[in-house]
User: Fold this.
Amino acid sequence: MTISSDDLETLFERASAGVAVDGLRIDKADGEYTLETPDNERRDLSEDGLREALETCEEYVTNWRYWQESVGGEGTARRAFLRWCEHAPLPDAEEDTATTESLAVPARYDALRDGIDRQWGQLSITARFVDIDDPDGQRVYDLWHVDDADSDLADLEVYDDPRDAREIATYDEDGRYRPLKTVPTLVSGWAFTGLSGAELVETIGFLYPATIANWHRELRGNLDVDHWTETAERQTGIYDVIDELPREAVDWMAEACCVDSQCLRRREWEYDEDDDVDVDGGDSPFPCREPCSLVIAAARKWAILESEEEHTYELELTTSELNQLEELIDAVAEGRTDEIREADVNDGANRYRARYLRAKRVGEDGLEATQVDE
Amino acid sequence: MQALVIAAHGSHLNPDASDPTYAHADTIRETGAFDEVREAFWKEEPHFREVIRTLEADEVFVVPLFISEGYFTEQVIPRELRLDEWDPEKWESDGTSASQVTLEADDVGKTIHYCGPVGTHDAMTDVIVQRAETAMEDPDVGEGVGLSVVGHGTERNENSAKAIEYHSERIRERDRFDEVKALFMDEEPEVDDVTDYFESDDIVVVPLFIADGYHTQEDIPEDMGLTEDYRLGWDVPAAVDGHRIWYTGAVGTEELMADVVLERAADAGADIGDARETVRDLAGSVTDADHEPSAGTGAGD
Assistant:
């Protein structure tokens, strides 16, 4: 028996106001109890009768205790997220936003013995029972990088304080600063184990700030999206200029910064309500509700650059050299310059190839090009 | 439930810019005074725009980790938090006396107590003095020593200099240091000429900045002549024009800053219990004789 007498006392107390969670219903009227589960309904029970009846649906009782007494927080993003972690029904969800099938208590209990895995950006989350052999309903959560899903825990740096996540989130594997946390450059090689629900949410709050809150708002159908024009017009100071960015530049900007290879949030903002940005928003579970501060800062640069006039230039290049310029741009844009082998002179973005082109075509005053449209 | 949000600038380029914010938030977390403590940033995440929705508490105290009243505290933060009823007039400030105003955040339906910046709070004076103590490794520092409080200053915002002058004047009134002088990077009197303004052999220079970065670690040391090139470092004290200059980093990194954040929230009605004592114990208190509790006096008195 994993239901303690304290828990039963609490359950009896709660029954007067009605208990209803995940298919378990207990009501009290005129001193008698009604117990309902998806498989069974018992009426007119005395306290002893209820006690006895509850032993036949222990899983529902320990499930009630976990969600109502341990987690609590009805209506909060924390509770909804923890329920999502184990495929529990999401009462907050608008019908058309509940995309995955939820599991009823017995199926969930089976799955929680093995652990239920979910993916959140580059994070892998496992929900499991504290005590697998004799589960009392208490869950804990493990968190690691998706790339470490098959790693031995002994090979990973193990943490249990959510605040340790800040350091993990600050640098990429080359030691470069990550100002935007949802860029897919989260380092691997670490694990948080045995987190409580609140600790899991706090840890993800450091790794992917505000993603759970915005996911929850979207789930409930009240995500407040601020499109490009609204966000740009709101800016002041040095960012006041960004609403001058041409319409088509917003597409180029989204392609440069916001696609899944650059940021794991799913872009929900468009140019404005009636004018979509012509770039795929991505398919992450968590939405991006307005252009982030990095996009704003970059947009300022582009707004200033786009205010320049276009000219026609003449410069001498072989066909291969023209193609090489494209290869160079592509290598930098895809961040693959580090992967190009030292002696791979067939790659136009190879360092020697670039240095050769510079030696040949870039003089002391820069690229030897002549403006021809004076 | 009550939550605390520490609102700071942050940086896209410098990972250390947010260190003081995290450090002070952690100190306050240790006290347990708030159900939730959250860092929020203009350039990092969570952004000002999205921080309030990450909180479960209905009552939120927002303390800007900024030095002076100005563009960020009067325009950017309230706008990004969606404090639609905000108007700088509501602070009824003379430039250094903003305490708090209670507003609703439009997107979440929560009560927001929007506080004045840490830099203008009276308790900040203690932090500057403590920084002088730690710089000279002398808890009784004062006699025979000149203190310079250095700020950014800018012709564009007169409040920037006001905050620096305000604390300088308060320290001067304590009659602890032989000389006290406010100096600036971008306006007169300039920090470049620091030795012209002091007769004392020892000058302790405390930069009133939130975080260490370009200004405190590159500009100011070079401007004062502590070093030819900031990359070579400098001595503490460093000999300049026959004076010894005791210069350490931004005052915002001082542990006692957490106390200023707490006081801002307490002035706005937060129930912080004995958290201030805990923080002062953690940070190592300034000497009692010098301690001026500001509770009840209100900022700007």
